[in-house]
Amino acid sequence: MKRFLLITLASLVTLAGCHSFKKENVQPPTPLAKDFKPTLQVTRLWRTSVGDGAGVSGARLRPTVVDGVLYADSTDGKLAAIDAASGKTLWSKSSRTHGWFGWGDKKRKDALYAGGPAVAGDLLAVGTLDGHVYGVNAKDGSPRWEAELNAEVLASPVIVGDLVVVRTGDGRVYALDSASGARRWAYDQGSVPLLSLRGNGPLLAANGVLFFGSDDGKLVALRQDNGSKLWEQKLSSGEGRTEIDRLNDVDGAILLDGPVLYGTAYHGNLVAVDGPSGRPLWSHPFSSFGSLAVSGNAIFGVNDQSQVWAFDKNGGADMWKNDALKYRWLTGPAVQGNYVVVGDMEGYVHWLQTGDGALAARERLSKKAIRAQPLVVGDIVYVEDVEGRIGAYRLSAH
């Protein structure tokens, strides 16, 4: 197996912070305007925490909400279900076994949860940094099954039909039986670049097909029933003078709107693709390592300089750009009503108007970085920082 050197841009920011941002290739974050006057009222409904969150793992842990329950995990072995309206913990489990008295779950020894949980019905599936996938009862957190894979799981699994489908860091995709965890099929990308950004975008399941972005700049479609490849489409050419210049990972989620898929790659393009055929519809230069969001006729994205952009989804034309948060290492955007929501490296959450990109509000969840794309469910947005703090916010006009 090839040895991989995985890097994260967030680590470059941390390193630069030790040198007052004097490194030539790292820019200081744009200061937040002190005279900012919000045009939107934001109410924080609650705040809680789940373990130590992603910690220094580089994982982008994102909770999920199903039937009014928020599920979250952490790399120090915590798994929890929380009432999404009140923030009250419904159940919490720890996989730790080496506490003072050996307390913990003996069947999941120190599980380093990292993929973010997926929930369907009463099944919760979650992956780990050491290449395991666990099936858990979503009602109480009791264990059901365990599967061992060949590499770390940094993306959330997807549960579709009777399958739990998982990506691993070595370029493979596995389908596991949702009842037992037994392996049903595996797709092997063949090879992955020696150098790549740390992380994987989640799988997208739709109409019997699984879509994902690869570490070598491709959008790939697989048959759900057997894992055979239907088509692939380039989002980035991977060209450049140095290996850093040739990084072309697709680390954000693939977005589906009607029959059209949208994806973007680092050092690549924002591309619209016909879902059934894989035929490209349009392409626009846009380098990003985050996920996209769509609302109405607009697609929203954050580029590799943390500028927030809006594009016309029918042709890719620029609609607006906001660079007030440049180099603040923003998350991928989410859409909450008429606003785009992003988190930043200092724990702030920002709301921008979807119509023109103007900043409308900001709140601070914590003093730690927010790396995972905010999650909007109904009229509430949920945001998690790297230390496992989760906040829930609702909007109301001034």
TrEMBL record:
Keyword Membrane tagged: yes
Database matches in SMART domains: PQQ
UniProt membrane topology term: Lipid-anchor
Record InterPro entries: BamB, PQQ_b-propeller_rpt, PQQ_rpt_dom, Quinoprotein_ADH-like_sf, WD40/YVTN_repeat-like_dom_sf
Lineage top rank: taxon: Bacteria
Signal sequence region: 1-16
Gene3D superfamilies reported in the protein's UniProt record: YVTN repeat-like/Quinoprotein amine dehydrogenase (2.130.10.10)
Location(s) in or outside the cell: Cell outer membrane
Domain Pyrrolo-quinoline quinone repeat, first and last residues per copy: 45-96, 114-322
Coiled-coil spans in chain: none
Keywords: Cell outer membrane, Lipoprotein, Membrane, Palmitate, Signal
Annotated family: Belongs to the BamB family.
Role noted for this protein: Part of the outer membrane protein assembly complex, which is involved in assembly and insertion of beta-barrel proteins into the outer membrane.
Quaternary structure and partners: Part of the Bam complex.
UniProt name for this protein: Outer membrane protein assembly factor BamB
Gene: bamB
